[in-house]
Design a protein that fits this description.
This protein has about 140 residues and is α+β, with helices and mostly antiparallel strands. It has a single domain (about 5-140), classed as Gcn5-related N-acetyltransferase (GNAT) (Aminopeptidase, 3-Layer(aba) Sandwich). About 30% of the residues lie in helices and about 40% in strands. It is built from 4 helices and 7 strands. The chain has a 7-stranded mixed beta sheet, sandwiched between helices. The longest helix has 18 residues, at about 15-30. The radius of gyration is 14 Å and the shape is globular.
C-alpha cells in the first residue's frame, strides 16, 4: 500500500479539527521554528479556508488559503516532523490546487529551504529573498 492511500485531506469543519490544526502549527512554527505566536496567528485566521491532513487517521498536517488582490495565496503549510517525507505536504498542496479559483494566479511565500518542494509542484520563484519571522522566504507563483 502506498503512503498516498494512507493520507486524507479535508476541509476543517469541527472545533476538534480546528484545534488539531492549531496544535500542528504551534508545534511546527512556534516550537520548532521559533516563530512568535503573535506573528503565526494573524488577522486572516477567520477569513481563510483551512484544511487538515491525516496520516493513518491521525492529524499530521495543515494549511490555509485566501483570496488577495494578487490572486489565491496559499499559506501556513505545516507537517509534523514525524510525518514528513511521506507525501503529506504534497497532498496538502494538491488539495488546495484542486479547490481554488484558477482564473487568477496561485502564489505563496516559501521558506527558502522549501523552494525545491514547491518547484516540483509547479511553482516558480519570483522576486528577491525577504524575511518573515526571521526566516528567509521567496515568493513563488504557479502560472495559470
Amino acid at each position: 500500500m502506498s503512503n498516498h492511500s494512507l493520507i486524507e485531506v479535508s476541509f476543517i469543519h469541527s472545533k476538534s479539527e480546528a484545534q488539531a490544526s492549531r496544535q500542528i502549527r504551534e508545534e511546527v512554527f512556534v516550537v520548532e521554528q521559533e516563530v512568535p505566536p503573535e506573528i503565526e496567528y494573524d488577522e486572516y485566521e477567520e477569513s481563510s479556508t483551512h484544511i487538515l491532513a491525516c496520516f493513518e487517521g491521525l492529524p499530521v498536517g495543515t494549511a490555509r488559503w485566501r483570496k488577495t488582490e494578487h490572486g489565491q495565496k496559499l499559506e501556513r503549510f505545516a507537517v509534523l516532523k514525524s510525518a514528513r517525507r511521506k507525501g503529506v505536504g504534497a497532498a496538502l498542496v494538491k488539495f488546495v490546487l484542486d479547490q481554488i479559483d484558477h482564473t487568477e494566479p496561485a502564489y505563496l511565500n516559501s521558506q527558502v529551504s522549501a523552494i525545491p518542494f514547491y518547484a516540483r509542484l509547479g511553482f516558480e520563484e519570483t522576486g528577491e529573498i525577504f524575511y518573515e519571522a526571521g526566516i528567509p522566504h521567496r515568493k513563488m507563483i504557479r502560472k495559470l
